[in-house]
């Protein structure tokens, strides 16, 4: 639990703090103008920042954090780190924590900050050894304590808060499927939510798997209606305050998803001031 100790006591010893910086920040130099990044205007015609993106994705269960964070990670060349995935990997490993984790996750509760910090710091350390730089965090921080500790150890440039109607969130969670072989996520729900109480109507086509994944689809044990509702309740209680934490710091970008991926992805890129073709071209050059 050395990594855990390092993460949870960042200010108790200077060397711990230095270790933390090494583990949580892949920074080689500090960006002199953080401001320009958290005003969401990475401009690819200008010189690249001195370090890579350090972004966070927030949002309710089922909103699509994983989908959009993973697309952006491919586009920007930074790792997508989802603490939910780390928890599921630990669960599947049948390690000493797996029994305890299964009980918590399948009830829709949050895993302790200590366990999450341990899993995350290990993941960041492994990434650092592989030469990874920057990150898009998904599903972390999820409590004020997690946000405060992250804030002590590194500089987050931008926090994207994805938002979607709650009835659609539940439908999306219930339609979620994972390929047990390749791990890719799909969604079999065909959503057609009517406009009501001032909320606009919304359609989302299913995200169907290719043929080779179709027979291997599994549903997450925590994607039952009862557990999804509990996860939403827990989100409002524990994670909503994290949105305010970043809003106060001027780092929060609210993004209302207008529909499925075809409508939302270009709008999200626009909101982030990213031009896909330019980034791809600059990566090839
Ligand atoms: N940062 C975190 N803090 C505490 N528990 C977490 C965290 N990230 C993931 N978990 C645990 O893993 C589960 C699955 O997380 P995730 O895949 O992010 O689900 P969701 O679809 O609810 O966003 C959560 O319900 C919770 O039990």
From TrEMBL:
Its EC number is 2.7.4.3. Pfam families: ADK. It is an enzyme of class 2 (transferase). InterPro entries: Adenyl_kin_sub, Adenylat/UMP-CMP_kin, Adenylat_kinase_CS, P-loop_NTPase. It catalyses: AMP + ATP = 2 ADP. It comes from the Eukaryota. One of its GO terms (molecular function) is AMP kinase activity. Keywords: Kinase, Nucleotide-binding, Transferase. Belongs to the adenylate kinase family. PANTHER family: NUCLEOTIDE KINASE. Monomer. This is adenylate kinase.
């Amino acid at each position: 639990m050395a990594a855990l100790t390092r993460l949870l006591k960042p200010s108790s010893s200077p060397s711990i703090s230095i270790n933390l910086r090494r583990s949580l920040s892949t920074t080689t130099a500090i960006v002199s103008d953080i401001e320009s990044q958290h005003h969401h205007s990475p401009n690819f015609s200008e010189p690249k920042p001195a370090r890579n993106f350090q972004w966070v994705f927030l949002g309710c269960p089922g909103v699509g954090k994983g989908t959009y964070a993973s697309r952006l990670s491919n586009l920007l060349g930074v790792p997508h780190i989802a603490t939910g995935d780390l928890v599921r990997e630990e669960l599947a490993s049948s390690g000493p924590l797996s029994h305890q984790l299964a009980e918590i996750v399948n009830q829709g509760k949050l895993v302790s900050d200590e366990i999450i910090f341990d899993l995350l710091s290990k993941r960041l350390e492994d990434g650092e050894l592989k030469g990874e730089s920057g990150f898009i965090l998904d599903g972390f921080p999820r409590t004020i304590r997690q946000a405060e500790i992250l804030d002590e150890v590194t500089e987050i440039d931008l926090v994207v808060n994805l938002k979607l109607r709650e009835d659609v969130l539940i439908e999306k969670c219930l339609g979620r499927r994972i390929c047990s072989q390749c791990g890719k996520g799909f969604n079999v729900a065909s959503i057609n939510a009517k406009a009501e109480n001032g909320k606009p109507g919304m359609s989302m086509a299913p995200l169907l798997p290719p043929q080779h994944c179709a027979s291997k689809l599994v549903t997450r044990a925590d994607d039952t209606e009862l557990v999804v509702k509990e996860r939403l309740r827990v989100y409002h209680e524990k994670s909503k305050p994290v949105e305010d934490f970043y809003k106060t710091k001027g780092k929060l970008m609210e993004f209302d998803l207008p529909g499925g991926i075809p409508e939302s992805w270009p709008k999200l890129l626009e909101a982030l001031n990213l031009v896909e073709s330019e980034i791809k071209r600059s990566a090839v050059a």
